[in-house]
Amino acid sequence: MADILTPALGESVTEATIAKWTKKVGEAVKKDEILVELETDKVSLEVVAPADGVLAAINAAEGDTVVPGTVLGAVTEGAAGASAPAAEVAPATAPAAAAAASTDGAVVDVAVPTMGESVAEGSVGTWLKQSGDTVAKDELLVEIETDKVAVEVSAPEAGVLTINVQAGEAVTPGQVIAQISASGAAAPAAAPKAAAPAAAPAASGAHLSPSVQRVVSENNLNPSSIAASGPKGNITKADAIAAIGAAAAAPAAAAPAAPRALGDREERVKMTRLRQTIARRLKESQNTAAQLTTFNEVDMTNVMALRAQYKDQFEKSHGVKLGFMSFFTKAVVAALKEIPAVNAEIDGTDIIYKNRYDIAVAVGTDKGLVVPVLRDADTLSLAGIEKGIGALGKAARDGTLTMDQMQNGTFTITNGGTYGSLMSTPILNAPQSGILGMHNIVQRPMAINGEVKIRPMMYLALSYDHRIVDGKEAVTFLVRIKQLLEDPQRALLDL
Fold first, then answer.
1. Catalytic residue IDs
2. How far apart (Å, rounded) are the C-alpha atoms in residues 54 and 318?
3. Could you tell me the CA-to-CA distances from 24 to 17, 72, 73, 91, 256 in Å, in that order?
């Protein structure tokens, strides 16, 4: 007997939904034949037969939620193998798998599931049930929030719930956060009490994945008004995003718990995990590196003229608009090649010089600042850079960035000019040694060959780690970027 297992779903992806089985129990299968299709909020995966034989059991039906390592079914090896009843293989567990199967009178633990690679802890969200409430098997109980993902915890068995860990408390994978007394017959899930704080209400019979719940909660959507296109009538993330803007405001009872009022002009709101992580990393960066910022200004006349001359033809040829970020990225890569210390990092008493140019681009979202990475920017054309940055920005705003897309950058560019910033001192994106701050383009009088002329000027700021980058190198780096932008043909001709 060979088990059919849920494969690894990718970094930061902790669960998937059974989309479709291509075979039925008792049917013959061949090794590597596709048996089942899985869907996550990022990708679709195919699971193949582990051996020749007969599909003996299906343990997870279409629409069920599974985690990596879950036994989806089993194949009896050998072409003439008899099909085995489904009961011979342990049924797939829900994301909050219990330590032991339920029997009459047993108490089943509700444990924190694995929350993704490198995620060591999370915080308990709002419980959708209270201690003493009757719950149904696989009914959603609570969501565990981490700085990367939100993981839902469902009831492993039907019974009466006892909560051990309250909302807001920190938990670790495997920790028991509740127990279910499974004695007696399972009762239908009780409707949430009006007084109980909850996220957006679930549609009748609908299963909301963590990513869908996040979109629903943050945009006050009513799940019952969203057209569902997923298996068994489930709402997909695409369905929820499509409903943003069109949905009416969610009923007050469905809104997240109101922040505690502190007088008429104050309120206390708990920081999200993402905001906590941003705050911690920025402070760690300040405390670790010897940060210094040097400034310069660049005349954007030639870049703007070149862009105006070719932007229509560029968009027609490449299907993407020609912006300023591609020129800045090209200039940064050229400057990094000349001043390698700005592209390096400190590791203990060693300096790691990097011969790759993976440029991180800061993107502001409703949830906070994220910094996805444009890989191998030195190999990309202007069009390739614009397309890459555009795709990363869209993924950031849609909340679909993976951890791989936000790690191992060598240098960062941040554009405060998008919001009207005239000048700033950006904080290093540790462990990187440099970050370039772009700012607003402002028409200012400049002395040009003894004459005063109005030119579109931008202040540039380079924050750098003075432990590894000397002042001369930092100034030279910024001057080089200025030269390449004021004469953009130099960058295009690699001069």
1. 466, 470
2. 50
3. 18, 13, 11, 16, 42
User: What is the CA 58 to chain-centroid distance, rounded?
Assistant: 31
Q: What is the CATH number of domain 95-196?
A: 2.40.50.100
**Bond from prior residue into 431 cis (ω within 30 degrees of 0):** yes
Q: How far apart are CA 261 and CA 208, in angstroms?
A: 30
Distance, CA of 51 to CA of 54 (rounded, Å): 9
Distance CA 94, CA 109 (A): 12
Instruction: Map out the domains of the chain as residue ranges.
Output: 2-88, 95-196, 199-270, 274-492
What pLDDT sits at residue 38? 82
Locate 194 and state its tokens.
């009006």
Letter string b/e over residues 455-479, b meaning 16 or more CB atoms within 10 A of that residue's CB? bbbbbbbbbbbeebbeeebbeebbe
Q: Coil, strand, or helix at residue 4?
A: strand
413, 360 Cβ separation under 8 angstroms: yes
Burial class (CB in 10 A: 0-12, 13-18, 19+), 227: exposed
Q: What is the CATH T-level fold of the domain 2-88, as seen in this structure?
A: OB fold (Dihydrolipoamide Acetyltransferase, E2P) (2.40.50)
pLDDT score recorded for residue 350? 93
pLDDT, position 303: 93
Assigned CATH for 274-492: 3.30.559.10
Read off the tokens for 60.
Answer: 């997870």
Task: Report the candidate in 297, 277, 305, 335 with the shortest Cα–Cα distance to residue 417.
Answer: 297
Average pLDDT of every residue of the chain = 80
Pure H helices in 264-352: 273-288, 301-318, 325-338
Least confident interval from 107-111, 185-189, 270-274, 336-340? 185-189
Asked if 372 and 425 count as a contact pair (C-beta separation under 8 A), the reply is no
Do domains 2-88 and 274-492 share one topology? The answer is: no
What tens digit of pLDDT does each residue of 144-199 get? 877 656 678 888 888 899 999 888 888 888 889 999 987 644 333 334 433 433 33
Please report the pLDDT score of residue 387 as a whole number: 95
- Residue 390: pLDDT over 50: yes
- Indicate the pTM of the whole model: 0.51
**Closest CA relative to residue 136, chosen from 77, 75, 182:** 182
